[in-house]
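Box S2. Input/output pair 1.
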Amino acid sequence: MPDAQFVEVGEGVALATYSWGALDAPPVVLVHGFASSTRDTWVLTGWARMLEREGFRVLGIDLRGHGASEKPHDVAGYTVRQMASDVESVLDTFLIDEALYVGYSLGARIGWEVVRDLGDRIPRAVLGGVPDGIPLEHLDVDQVRRYIADSTPVTDERTRSYLDLTERVPGNDLSALLALALGMRDSRAVDPDPQNAPQQPILFATGTDDAVIEGSRSLAAAAPQSTFFEIPGRHHFNAPGSRHFRMAALEFLRG
């Protein structure tokens, strides 16, 4: 990992960013998923190394509440609109007028907004494992709060799976990620709107064994210049490590 460079975004939150490649190379922005980080989603899986080797300038962003970025506990800061604005602020800070975008899971949901809102500034994007519907709607918030307060065991299976996902990455802050979950669930604007889909070329990629695959297909069908790629033999949590996914994305980004 290169040293983090910190960028101040809305309300004084500092985001950790990481750069690879020549400054004059075509830039690609990488945005990870919920409870993950640039290192976990893009470095350990070989994406950053591959893109740098193929002649891109790579810019990874740790989303607010994740990785080495600041982790506020204020629910209001965790709307998709705010996190999409964070990405735009990073591009502005690095004086990047145009960039390709690659996002996975939460990073793909944010990417839908970024690609739609920034128009020609994001000429092409890869959105992996993007779900439709209300995110984290099955999370039992009361059980999570009790677990944070006094380690009361979590009995709800789906909630326990979210906690396991959160706790597997060192440095994650459960209170910050609970605030993120609440901020996303409480904002109805978070749902990708098929009636207002991005117009740029987009590669949608989802694992064949991922529970969100049909939702991803429906979003891809709404985007007029989309391509859909099934990542063979992968579920939601191991799809970023797929060589098939990396190669399909690379071919698409080359245009």
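Box S3. Input/output pair 2.
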Amino acid sequence: MKFTTKKGKPRKTYAVIGLGRFGSAVARTLAENGQDLIIVDRDPDRVRELRCLTDYAYVISHLDQAALEEIGVGDCEVAVVAIGSAIDANILASLYCLNLHVPRVIAKANSKDQGQILEKIGAEVIYPEKDMGVRLANQLSNQKVIDYFSVSGNIDIAQISIPKFFIGKSLQDLALRNQYGISVVAIQKQRQTIEEIDPSYRFEADDIVIVIGSNENIHNFERIVANED
């Protein structure tokens, strides 16, 4: 199975395996963003509920590599394995996707041990409950932090309202990378987002920065912002 654009070029497609709360949220969001996807679960009711999202919705009671290959998972660019409590099924489904040469396999883990196994076989690991807890704690503990999430094990992105000492200064003046080990990837001005940033841009009140850096550097910067404003 190949998904193509009107010009006949292959386009990015996703497989979501497991349609619990997390998997359903991923599937719905991908569909809302106009992405092509395959969805899979052993529960017919879950598949029926989300069938409106895609023509490729499958009930598979016995999940194995042959079944995933038959429905076209091997043609996807990304597979999200969101199987919940069945740890063995989660790990095996991730392994099958990797065996089918899916370029990117992202697997949900409920524990550190499970995550370590998934990482060893080559999957990217996410901890939904832990990540949401970290995001909430960061938002609650620092009023300047609007949103926060992890990109990988030690890289974070934070959306932060600028402190007063930013106003009137440029990125060159602030030297954030040298001073704090973080990089500005975008600036939000009301409803406008600036992605190609001129280093001479001078910050204005109510600007919001989206920054990326290591866990430690992001947290240190958040503390500085909170203390110096």
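Caption for Box S3: The mean pLDDT is 82. Residues 3 and 9 are 8 Å apart (CA to CA).
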